[in-house]
């Protein structure tokens, strides 16, 4: 429960004067960011939701200027949702806030413990995805520089 609570920190009032994303908008924008523009049907399938639910959520996002409906770049009939500059800025601001909050919490943890936590959480996520046939796409990892000796 605490991990979930920290995940939705931006939706709380911890950032006075700054608008934060609804949890559904944060998740949908995160998925679109990784996959590129997506149709309502693709988003519904990705989150195992009814299309009507995703339609309501994305309609609010369109109204808020977070996404635009665009023609399918691949020539398909259905329109796709693409992140607007405002949507990208707010997604990154919320993500930065969450990462900053977690960094503050973990600031005194030794590096080995941080790596262990990351490894265990990664394994947990992958196991959940495999168990429920729910794969979350991830950006390609950034190579870690190797120190010269």
Question: If you had to describe this structure to a student in words, what would you say it looks like?
Answer:
- The chain is mainly α and 149 residues long.
- The chain has a domain of 87 residues: Winged helix-like DNA-binding domain superfamily/Winged helix DNA-binding domain (Arc Repressor Mutant, subunit A, Orthogonal Bundle).
- The chain is built from 6 helices and 2 strands, in the order ααααββαα.
- It has a two-stranded antiparallel sheet with strand order 1-2.
- Helix 2 crosses helix 5 and helix 3 crosses helix 4.
- The longest helix has 22 residues.
- This is MarR family transcriptional regulator.
Short précis:
This protein has helices spanning 2-7, 23-35, 40-47, 51-63, 85-106, 111-132, and strands at residues 67-70, 80-83.
Tag the structure with descriptive keywords.
HTH_MarR-typ, HTH-type_Bedaq_tolerance, WH-like_DNA-bd_sf, single chain, 56% helix, two-stranded antiparallel sheet, mainly alpha
